[in-house]
Each structure stands twice: as structure tokens, then as C-alpha cells.
């Protein structure tokens, strides 16, 4: 009986060690603030937290099960990225959508995506071409079915696929950083604009010129498309009341 008890104890210990080892494989080794940063950034980009809104620190600490220290590390990074402003005795305030600043970012994004479209059309990398075609088809389906959130998520993936097709890490990082701001404004504008069934057709010329191996045509199609996007987004953002997008804390005009 004693031997049996020892055997059972050994089996139980072995089982616990195996279970703990299994958990260790799924627990991230990244610092806590790096684990929660993408989630909070994404919430800002998706307008869960609106421009000029204060981020509720206690609520976020509870949501992610963290103390204030890693959360404040996240907020410092978001301030460097230009997505929040840290105001003494108040906390983190989501930055306003400032039309002149946004126009500059849209112009830079357009330049990066024109360059990307040109290179992908010239090089024809098979994985990128397949992904571009897949996303274009999926966007058409989402637009046809009136799936607004899905459509605009696929839209971001579509443009990102063209950029990643260049296999240029510097370009990709620059594009990712500026897209946080552009996507936030575009998501805000798109929430207030109806999604038409022909929305995906705006990308037809881009895809057509890329598949045809026409670098100049692909760059031109991308420029024309993004000119339209820029006009639509800025027109919508500029209509918002100054009290919402002209916060005194940022020094914008009232």
C-alpha cells in the first residue's frame, strides 16, 4: 500500500509538472506593457476612445489585469506615437483629429503606397499577388453584403499587402506608423458614411495595373484612389465641431 501511495504521489507530481510546462509554452515572455500596447493602440485607432476623450486608467488596469506601472509605460509610448497627450493631474487624452496634420500624413501615406504599387507591379512577387487578389475579392463580397466593419478591415489589409509586397522593412515600418493615424481618421469618417456596393470597385484599377505588370499605371491608379480617399476623409473631419477636434490642450485654434 505504501508503495502504491508513493507511486500515486509521483504520478500526481509528474502530471502537475507537465501541466505547468504546458502553461509556460503559452505565456508570453514579452514585458507586460508590450503585450497590452497593441490592444490599446487598436482601440484608439478603431475609435473606442474618441478624440479628446480621457483614457480611463482604472478601467484599463482592470480590463487587462495589470497595475498602473505597465499601463503608464504604454501611455508614454502612445504619446511618442502621437496618439495620446499626457496632461498633468488629468491623465492620457486621445489626440484630436487635426485636419492640417492629417493632410500631411495622408500625403506621405500616398507617396509610400504609390512607391509600393509601382514595385509590386514591376517585380510581381507571387505571394503578394495572391494576397492582393484574395483581399480584393473578399472586399467585393463584404461590400455586396453590407459588412461595413469587415470591408474596411479588409481594405487596410489590402493596402498593407501591397506595401509588404515590396519586401522593404524600412518602408513597411514607416507605413505602419503613419497608418495608425490615417486609419483612425478614416474609421471615424467611414462610421458616418454609408457603404455602397460599388465601394470595392475603387480598387479595381489598382489591381488591374498591378496584375498587368504596369508600374507607372499602378502608381497612377493608387494616387488617384488615395486622392479621393484624402478628399473624403478631410471633408468629413473638417465638418466636426471645433470643440471636438480643436482641443485647447493641443494648442489648436478654437
From TrEMBL:
It comes from Rhizobium puerariae. The keyword Transcription regulation applies. Residues 30-97 form the HTH gntR-type domain. Residues 16-25 have a biased composition (Basic and acidic residues). Residues 1-25 are annotated as: Disordered. The keyword Flavoprotein does not apply. SUPFAM superfamilies: GntR ligand-binding domain-like, Winged helix' DNA-binding domain. This is GntR family transcriptional regulator. Pfam families: FCD, GntR. Keywords: DNA-binding, Transcription, Transcription regulation.
